[in-house]
Specification:
Layout: H1 3-8, H2 17-20, E1 25-26, H3 29-39, E2 68-69, H4 78-82
Parallel strand pairs: 1-2
Length: 91
């Protein structure tokens, strides 16, 4: 797929600050898949050999509440916030 095709078909959508107030964004595709499994009655973490200490902090929200999914968790900050670690690269 090309970027233009993804945007034209509505798979990728740019949200402005006002729209972000009314949407429910899943932070990772894994969270979205786990919500889908939960809504189907399957416990996604039932047979996990590795224990995730952050799992208790994640919300147990059903898949029908998500309207969008973030491409990557760092993208929620935008370009301006993403370049903060490099303040002197503009010289």
């Amino acid at each position: 797929f090309k970027w233009e095709q993804l945007v034209k078909t509505g798979i990728i959508e740019l949200l402005d600050a006002e729209e972000e107030e009314t949407v429910m964004i899943s932070m990772t595709p894994e969270d979205l898949e786990n919500s889908r499994l939960q809504s189907a009655g399957i416990n996604p973490h039932e047979n996990d050999g590795d224990f995730d200490p952050a799992a208790r902090l994640k919300a147990g929200i059903n898949a029908h509440t998500w309207t969008h999914c973030e491409i990557h968790p760092s993208m929620i900050l935008g370009v301006c916030a993403s370049i903060i670690p490099f303040p002197d690269h503009n010289q």
